[in-house]
Amino acid sequence: MIDQVLSIVFEIKTKSPKDLKEILDLEIDRKKYDRSNSRITIENKKLVIEIYAKDIIAFKATINNYINLLELISKVYEVDLK
């Protein structure tokens, strides 16, 4: 009945979006979700993360996964994620 429930776009400013994208791609490939999909692109020194989910639980799990990864990356690599 419903194909997609929610979507969101994160924009992250960083000095090295390519490096951050590589790190995120590696980490995201470890944990795939069947009911959600995400895409990471680089636009004008910004990392853009698009998340699409079929239900609210998958949406929440995917967003929480990205937030946890970004928090860990910001601590380890001292990246300013505003």
Question: Mean of residue pLDDT?
Answer: 83
Molecular shape:
globular
Strand order of the largest sheet: 1-3-2
The total count of strands amounts to: 3
Structural class: alpha+beta
List segments where confidence is low: pLDDT < 50 over at least 5 consecutive residues: none
Strand content: 25-35%
Q: Strand-and-helix sequence, N→C? A: EHEEH
Percentage of residues assigned to helices:
40-55%
Quaternary organisation: single chain
User: Whole-Å distance between the termini?
Assistant: 37 Å
The whole-angstrom Rg is 13 Å
Give the number of helices.
2
Largest sheet: 3 strands, antiparallel
Task: Give structural notes.
The chain has 82 residues and is of the alpha+beta class. It is built from two helices and three strands; from the N terminus they run βαββα. The chain has a three-stranded antiparallel sheet, with helices on one face. The protein is globular and about 45 Å long. The relative contact order is 0.26. The mean pLDDT is 83.
Keywords for this entry:
globular; 44% helix; alpha+beta; 82 residues
